Amino acid sequence: MARRMTFLAVALGGALLLQGCATRSGFEARMGQYVGRSEADLIAALGVPVRNFQVGNRTFLQYERRFVTADSGPGWGWGVNVQTWDCATTFEIVDGRVHSFTSRGNDCIASAP
């Protein structure tokens, strides 16, 4: 039983440590790797975007990630804390290549590549 508890504590600690490494700058670095690559490479890596917009010779591809967490407070009837996590990232494509990207949301974080 003690060995099992130790394993669970180490696993939980490791997960929290990895989560602690996820930052906004890590996300920027990870997405920045796509600048200069082809539109086909971007879609192959990230999948089909949820939206695309065409403006003149520029195309904008938007990706979204969203989830909700709910934690109950201690005891009975203390309420529930609900948090929505989201990140929308839009890539600008010019002449078939990723020119730039922008992102917004409270969950645009990742570990550095």
Could you walk me through the main structural features you see in this protein, from its secondary elements to its overall organization?
The chain has 113 residues and is an alpha+beta fold. It has one domain (21-104). It is 33% helix and 38% strand. It contains 3 helices and 4 strands. It has helices spanning 2-21, 24-32, 39-46, and strands spanning 51-55, 58-72, 80-94, 97-104. It has a 4-stranded antiparallel sheet. The longest helix is centred in the N-terminal third of the chain and has 20 residues, at 2-21. It is elongated and about 60 Å long.
Based on the model shown, name its key terms.
33% helix, four-stranded antiparallel sheet, elongated, 3 helices, 113 residues, alpha+beta
Major β-sheet annotation: 4 strands, antiparallel
Fraction of residues in β-strands:
35-45%
Query: What is the N-to-C succession of helices and strands?
Result: HHHEEEE
Computed structural class: alpha+beta
Number of domains: 1
The neighbouring-strand order within the major sheet is 1-2-3-4
Radius of gyration: 19 Å
What is the typical, i.e. mean, pLDDT? 84
| End-to-end distance | 38 Å
Helix content: 25-40%
Total strands: the figure is 4
Tell the overall outline.
elongated
Number of helices: 3
Low-confidence stretches: 4-18
Write the layout of secondary structure elements.
Blueprint: H1 2-21, H2 24-32, H3 39-46, E1 51-55, E2 58-72, E3 80-94, E4 97-104
